[in-house]
Amino acid sequence: xxxxxxxxxxxxxxxxxxxxxxxxxxxxxxxxxxxxxxxxxxxxxxxxxxxxxxxxxxxxxxxxxxxxxxxxxxxxxxxxxxxxxxxxxxxxxxxxxxxxxxxxxxxxxxxxxxxxxxxxxxxxxxxxxxxxxxxxxxxxxxxxxxxxxxxxxxxxxxxxxxxxxxxxxxxxxxxxxxxxxxxxxxxxxxxx
Length: 192
Hints:
This protein is α+β, with helices and mostly antiparallel strands and 192 residues long. It has 4 helices and 4 strands; from the N terminus they run αααββαββ.
C-alpha cells in the first residue's frame, strides 16, 4: 500500500478514537452536572429534612405522652378535683372564711373578741398567674388547750391557709396559771 494512504488511515483512526472519547467525556460531564448532581443534592436535602422530622416526631411523641399522662391522672382523680377548688377558690369567698373561723372557734370553746380582714380588692377581675391572699387577724381568749384546738380546727379546714404570726399573752389581771390566754393570730388564706 501506499505510504500516504497508510498515513491517512492512521490519522483518521486516531481522530475517530479521540472524537469518541471527547464526546463521551462531554456527555458524561453534562449528565453529571445536569442530571446526577441535582439528584444527589435532592437526596441529601431529603435526608436532612428526614432527620429534622424524626426529631420533631420525638418531640411530638413526648408531648402526646404528657397529654395521655395528664388525661389518665384526671380520669383517676377526677372525683377529688373539687377539693382543689375548695383549697384555692377562684374568688376570695370572705364570708366562707369568716363562717369557718367562727365555727372553729365555737367548736373549740374559744371566744373571739375581734376579727379583722385586711384589704381585699373585690373588683380585681384580671387573671393572674400567681395566687392572691387574704390576711385575717384574730383576737380571742381561751386556755392553752382550747387555743391549740382552735388552731388545729382552723388549719384543718379545706381552704389553704398559713399562719403568718401567732402570739400568746397571759392576762395579767387574773393571776392564776390556769387563767385565760390572750391569743393574737394572723392567718393568710389564698385564692386564685
